[in-house]
Amino acid sequence: MQGRYGSLELLSIEEVERPAPGDNEVLVLVHAVAVTLSDTMMRKGQPLAVRLFSGLLRPKQPTLGAEFAGEVVVAGKDVERFVVGDRVFGSTGDDGGCYADYVCISEDSFVASMPSNMTYEEGAPVCGVLAAWNFLQNKAKVQSGQRILISGASGSIGTAAVQLAHHFGAEVTGVCSTANLGLVESLGADRVIDYTREDFTKGVEKYDIIFDCENKSSFSRCKKVLTPDGQYLKTYPGPAIVLQMLWTSRIGRKKAVISATGLLPVSKRLALLAELKQVIENEDLRPVVDKCFALDEIADAYRHAERGHKRGTVVVSVDQANTMMGDVV
After folding, report:
1. What is the helix, strand, coil percentage profile of the chain, to 5?
2. Is pLDDT at 281 greater than 80 in this prediction?
3. How far is CA 35 from CA 39, 205, 266, in A?
4. 250-274: buried (b, 16+ CB within 10 Å) or exposed (e) per residue?
5. Residue 116 and residue 304: Cα distance in Å, rounded?
6. Hey, is 321 helix, strand or coil?
7. Which of 32, 81, 138, 317 could form a disulfide with 292 if both were Cys (CB 3.0 to 4.6 A apart)?
8. How many CB atoms lie within 10 A of CB 173?
9. How far apart are CA 285 and CA 187, in angstroms?
10. What's the whole-model pTM score?
């Protein structure tokens, strides 16, 4: 990012020295990297709160990208969980560095072996899929027969949530735009609402769970269409939902729920991921990839993701046979 926050014009590809793994690290040959909302915020340095993690005045890590899938090519002498040749996926979190041919990561970090039936492109957006699993299985504890509405059902978290809710045996209603109605229905939704034509918060249907995956609504607006013991789940924390979560945890039967999946202890995330991998291996979930871009098309990948109408996840495919150019900085 040329040492400062800002626009896409600051992105460039440069050759850098190949990283050398430490004794407890693996060197991963990167095959695919997700383009996420967090990446956008880290690139812009906005909102300002992200600079507490990425650097106050300038980025601490010039190479962006946190969610990756690739192959272990070197394992440090103390590494026990992985061997050369393992297909792995995971996240480097605030350390970034994944828009590159290689990345080093400690075996104690959030990294795991990929299910054999996943492509690298499907494996890269692991954190979004894990967030859906955390909310539905760990927080809401979805049960067969419950009625669940998923707002933002065609996005990266939403497409996973629809499949998982269907997997749990819930009656699923997906909310999305006109263009994505067919996609959401194909993922297992029993009913699909076009938000450009209908406001579900003004309807008569009641839901046991409302999962707001894209910050499209609020607990206050959704409260009246929740069942008496209903839960409102929100992926994007903010002052209002935090206060509502604290308030509803003590008063009333309807609950507001948030969870910063990425801030859970690594051991907890890996345990959740182990559960999720079984679902993927049983073919009950397949991450939706909107479009793959080459590493030298990173700016176009960001533009596509930031338009706000992507279907699933945008991915950068790092083709070592044709690139081997280094890092995006």
Report:
1. 35, 25, 40
2. yes
3. 6, 35, 22
4. eeeebbbbbbebbebeeeebbebbe
5. 29
6. coil
7. 317
8. 24
9. 9
10. 0.90
pLDDT tens digits, 70-98: 999 999 999 999 999 999 999 998 888 89
Amino acid at 187: L
- pLDDT of amino acid 137: 95
DSSP string covering 113-125: EPPTT--HHHHTT
Task: Find the mean pLDDT for residues 161-182.
Answer: 97
Q: Tell me the C-alpha distance between 121 and 31, whole Å.
A: 8
Please report where in the chains the tokens 């946190």 appear, as a residue: 66
Count, residues in the chain: 329
Nearest Cα residue to 64 out of 129, 20, 18, 8: 8
Query: What amino acid occupies position 136?
Result: L
CA gap 125, 103 in Å, rounded: 16
Token code pair at residue 115:
């299910």
Pairing of strands 289-294, 313-317: parallel
Closest CA to 272 of 151, 160, 186: 160
Check whether 41 has a pLDDT greater than 80. Answer: no
Q: In what order do the strands lie in the sheet with 255-258?
A: 191-194, 171-176, 147-151, 207-212, 226-234, 255-258
Dmax (CA) of the chain: 61
As separate numbers, helices (DSSP H) first and strands (DSSP E) second, the chain gives 10, 15
- Indicate the average pLDDT of the chain: 90
